[in-house]
Amino acid sequence: MKFKKAALLLTAILCVVCAPATFAQNTNSGDINGTVTDSSGALLPGVMVTVVNNETGIAKNLVTNRDGVYDTNSIVIGNYRVTFEKEGFTKLERSSITVEVGEVKINAQLKVGSVTSEVVVDTDAPLLKTENAEQSTTLGARQMAALPNVGQDWENFTILLPGTAGTPAGSQGSSNPGQEVSVNGNLPYSNILQDGASTTLSHSSNANPAIFETVSELQVSGSGFSAQYGIGGIVFNQISKGGTSSFHGSAYDYLQNDALDAAQYGFGNSVPVPFLRYNNFGGSIGGPVLKKKMFFYFNYDQTVNHGSASNNTSTVPTTSVLSGDFTGQQIIYDPTTQVIAKDSAGNPYPVRKSFLSETGKNAVPTIDPVASAIQQFYPTPSSHISGGNFVAGNLNSVGVLQNNFFSSLPQSTPYRKYFGRLDYDITQHND
Known about the structure:
By secondary structure, the protein is mainly beta. The chain folds into three domains: 25-121, Immunoglobulin-like; 133-240, TonB-dependent receptor, plug domain (Ferric Hydroxamate Uptake Protein, Chain A, domain 1); 255-316 and 379-431, no CATH class. 11% of the residues lie in helices and 38% in strands. It is built from five helices and 27 strands. The chain has helices at residues 2-27, 141-146, 319-322, 355-359, 369-375; strands spanning 30-38, 48-53, 59-63, 69-71, 78-85, 91-99, 102-105, 108-110, 118-121, 135-140, 164-166, 181-183, 190-194, 197-198, 215-223, 234-240, 248-257, 277-290, 294-306, 308-314, 339-342, 348-351, 388-390, 394-395, 401-402, 405-410, 413-424. It has a five-stranded mixed beta sheet, with no helix packed on it. It is elongated.
């Protein structure tokens, strides 16, 4: 009995340890596989297959099995060189193979000849994949950097993908739905992965996407994708950048300023341009720590937004109203003259005299000291808050001037992000 319990415990531990490795290998990495044949189509076992990452120099040595099949298992995305060698056959090299998330099938046909002879093919792998029915689109870092964008949010590009439609109820509007996009008729519910691990919050279905400066590629799977990706009508798989065999760096600044903006149309009124000072800047560096073994990548990103906390059009008293003069506006009455009268049915109603009938002017003769103190908080043409301006406004149905003051209150919103990645190839057989 003790032996059976120990065996069950060991099996459970192995399942827990092995499961994440299998999940990760299928969702955040690439895989080169295929078959090797001779010129007659016969399968060739024992062929030496060397797969080299052109960016890091890390190599994997494989040998085809008795069925002529080789498989790298999980490898980081990037550009690779694949060579095939066997005694009695001409050496074949595929010099530039782009590996994205998922499988890349590279079949080879060796011709009989001298080992010293070599055939080099520099064409990339075909874009059409026939291994599965998955419909997906991959956006690379260079593609996203070249597209017009405000800030560094790859979600601005989702509406550009084939088969996409915005959702009117989306938080960013139907023109830029972000995560709430429908692809190929699926429900607008997404699962966002970071290097194969889901970052979508289960209780709100929201996720904080990475900036595309740190994203090497974004794979968007719209339909037919494997169950290994979990739930979601659409799967956004963000693959982060890593270091290479040489040092590389970048610096950037995304700028917005009200000096570059046009004023909004005000229907005849002069509407000031809202205050705006926006900078999203940062930089990254990556390179080797140990040659062909360990590589690093680090990014610092900061947003300083001295933008508008609120843009608001308000109704404030004019200078003449603050002095008690309501000429041209609704008739005002003297509250000290109020008496109660009764109509023919005996119902009481208040009666007051207007200042116009008393003084011949629609104005308050004297201002209460308390009211005078409160007036100090109202903006005037000569003294008002920074970012506020008087505009023409308009008269309502009873002649009261309204919507005559526009204010744009600035705020400061600093925001920082740090991202780091370290890759270490322990052995060439490490998956």
